[in-house]
Input
Amino acid sequence: MDTDLTFSSRRSPVVCLHGCVASSQSLASNIGLDTLKRGGNAADAAVAIAAALAVTEPCSTGPGGDAFCLFYNGNTGEIKGINGSGRLPRAQTLDFLEGRGYSAEAPPSPSDALNVTVPGAPACWCDTVELFGSHKLSLQEVLSGAVELAEVGFPVAEVTAHHWAHWVEVLRDAGKQLGRDLLIDGHAPKRGQVFRNPALARTLKELGEHGKPAFYQGRVAQAVVDVINQHGGVMTLDDLSGHNSEVVTPLSTEYKGVCLWEPPPNSQGLAALLLLNILENFPLKDALRYLGDPDHVTIPLQTLLDKSYSHQRAQHISMDRTMEGVEPGLMTGSDTVYFCVIDSQGNACSFVNSTYMGFGSGLVPKDCGFSLQNRGASFSLHRNHVNCVAGGKRPYHTIIPALLTDSDSKSQKPQLLAALGVMGAFMQPQGHIQVLLNMLEFGMNPQQALDAPRVFVQYDHKADEWLVNLEEGIDQEVAEALRRRGHKVDWPVTGHKRSRFGRGQIITVGDWWNPSVNQADRPARVLWAGSDPRADGCAQGY
Output
């Protein structure tokens, strides 16, 4: 049945010697692996996968969204990142929104054109290839697999078909007739149905031939501005042409001999590091208080990542009763793709791409083949809030890729241990820590770490209380014990509702997670990989 999503089989981790990819769509994984075999490196393959996922999973990702990238240089051990998030139109100030009658209590609807921020993904793709790529393949060659996939067509995968149908109404809203470009005869494609997207093929082909100007100037830029303005938005061509990615230095923290690396604000990578520091399902109060666009707010990163701060926070956690007075934040969309690549030179690319809530705004620029994100819906309209709306400002961002290195060599050349990530709004930092601890503390291989049932703590706005979601597979006695301690528990979460627990990918260098293997006996370089059973994808290697 379409409503079922059962986990009735097992999957071994992929093991290989040279290069490995893992994504939520098998066709995209294949394109990434082919890119490696044609001489590309991890960065090239990651961008090839990003574009392929834009074709095969448009209800989660695409060039109308944002992206973040972390890259480990196998030669130097240097870790750099790219913040590929876009900004609000410069004219879209709080005064402007209040003048239109909006307020903190009555903001624009999530799919409103006013929630479209400048798409940052295309620039991030171009910059990833330019800054971190092998330069053996042109951008046109990197995107060629996705172009062919969009032109020829592909059969829609099962989980994707479910989410495509779930979000289809935003494409069919009154006045959004251009959404038909992502439908078949006005309907979401069914699983196994072949879908073609010649408009997206043209957009990707132009991006490959002409780079960033093909998206941020000219035909595509004009189509983006037109569809936004037709529906009440205020984005201009200058907002698009003025966009640039930002090269960033990732944040990190150490835990039992490893070092976890996450992107800095405006992403919520800080939350994952705080979670790891106190080893608890940390409520995101601190992250929501401090995370915003660093160009608009001073963030005390050194203080927050100091171990004494986490020790202080841990004192507030009781193992026998719930915490009181924990302030909630906005709980919003979770449709994103995460994927990772490690190549034969030891480079790694950890990448995440998202249109935010499904198809985002549901606005599809004419003849472009993609929808525009609604990331602006995560802004606050409270005037003194750190994430308050402002013209030209980047919003608080949920999407985060991660890397793991050996902390013993942090001061010299960090040794790569893994590329990993779990998509899914505020589940992401919780998911990062759960799959990491599955390996570190419980000796699970990457596939087992992703297969294991998860916990997701979220705020229920209607009930004005925190909710602990427990996935099917967690014992009933765990749910009952939490309820006795005062928690509201949703158990068991089954079927397609499992999507709230995110979808992850992991590639490790060696089996450092295996406690039964002596370090001295471990092969020099074997790659192990897992792909989340909650998605349609797979890991592939050679």
